[in-house]
Amino acid sequence: MTVKIPLIDSHCHADAFSPKEWAVVVARALECNVRGGLSAGVWWDAFVRFLDSHKDWTTEVVFSCAEFSQLFSEDNRFRIMPCIGLHPMEIALRWRDTQGCFDLSRAEADVAAFLRTGRAYRNYVWAVGETGFDVAKDVVLGWSRKEEILKAQDFGFQASVALAVELGQPLVVHSRAAWAHTQKRIQEAKGNGLDKFMVHCYPGPASDLKWIEQLEGFAGFGGVLTWPDAKRMRESVKNSPLNVLLLETDSPDLSPILTDGTRPTRNEPVYLLEIARQAAALRQETSSELEGINFCNLSRFFSLK
Ligand SMILES: [Zn+2]
């Protein structure tokens, strides 16, 4: 008998779907053996709301399972692995004063609440994030200078690293238009006791994947790899060392272009199947090989067997 390795979404936003939508989305995912997902956090209060409204999704805590596969042994359950985060795009919206500068007092209040919440719910925190840096044009809008927004995102990143180290959990990193800065901060975090991390929707050049490997990190690849003009991402997928590679959807955002040429308006975990298929084609491997590698790497990300 061959056992099918469950396909797990390394990065989605389960709390972006209403419970009613989610029931449909999960049914579709389970039909295709997509059995769980790491649900990235956007803000500390969203994490609390998420846990409160969906207690039944999160009954399994990471500390109670010895093996990653144990989590998916039960049939017909989709396992959510929630994360608590301070998303850099949210930081850009929330920690800006009227002059377009970093508002330290607002940031301090949020960080205090973030740390308090992370500690109180530590048995539900699978990872800390997303955190990171984003200075794309749409995010910088309304800020006086790029340096000010980076100051704000640095503040959020340091708090996230501190919480990850304290809880002994990994970090989920978002980086857009700020790769060199992100690298610098990850390198420092590793020196400050950070263990595992993933850079989701990997934005760097293929050559930096070796650097990620040396730091025992991971790189997430999602719908963008199916876009023909995303040359850099496709090059990275092709050349990624196997032990850093993760598959993700980032649903409901960044939906893939399907093999039939259509592109769904809203992304969801079931499209991981398509992402795995197209990543495998780029690498000249089989989908099931990549799905297995994704599973092994995620269990290593969570420091499980
Ligand atoms: Zn995300």
Say which molecules are bound, naming each kind only once: zinc ion
Using the CA coordinates, give the radius of gyration. Answer: 18 Å
> How many domains would you count in the coordinates?
1
Q: What is the CA–CA distance across the termini?
A: 22 Å
CATH fold title? TIM Barrel
- Per CATH, which architecture? Alpha-Beta Barrel
**Helix content, binned percent:** 40-55%
Record field, number of beta strands: 8
Which spans have pLDDT < 50 for at least 5 consecutive residues? 58-63
Shape, per Cα inertia axes: globular
The string of secondary-structure elements, in order, is EHEHEHHEHHEHEHEHEHH
Largest sheet: 8 strands, parallel
CATH homologous superfamily annotation: Metal-dependent hydrolases
The share of residues in extended strands comes to: 5-15%
Mean pLDDT: 91
**What structural class do helix, strand and pairing data support?**
alpha/beta
Number of helices: 11
CATH class: Alpha Beta
Q: Give the neighbour order of strands across the main sheet.
A: 1-2-3-4-5-6-7-8
Overview features:
single chain, 305 residues, alpha/beta, TIM Barrel, eight-stranded parallel β-sheet, 42% helix, 14% strand, binds zinc ion
What does this structure look like?
With 305 residues, the chain is of the alpha/beta class. Helix content is 42%, strand content 14%. It has a single domain, classed as TIM Barrel. It has helices at 19-31, 44-53, 88-94, 104-120, 137-140, 146-167, 179-191, 209-214, 231-239, 272-283, 287-301; strands spanning 7-12, 34-39, 79-84, 127-134, 171-176, 197-199, 218-221, 245-247. Strands 1-2-3-4-5-6-7-8 form an eight-stranded parallel sheet. Strand 7 (218-221), helix 9 (231-239) and strand 8 form a beta-alpha-beta unit. It is globular and about 55 Å long. Mean pLDDT is 91; it is low at 58-63. It binds zinc ion. Zinc ion binds next to loops.
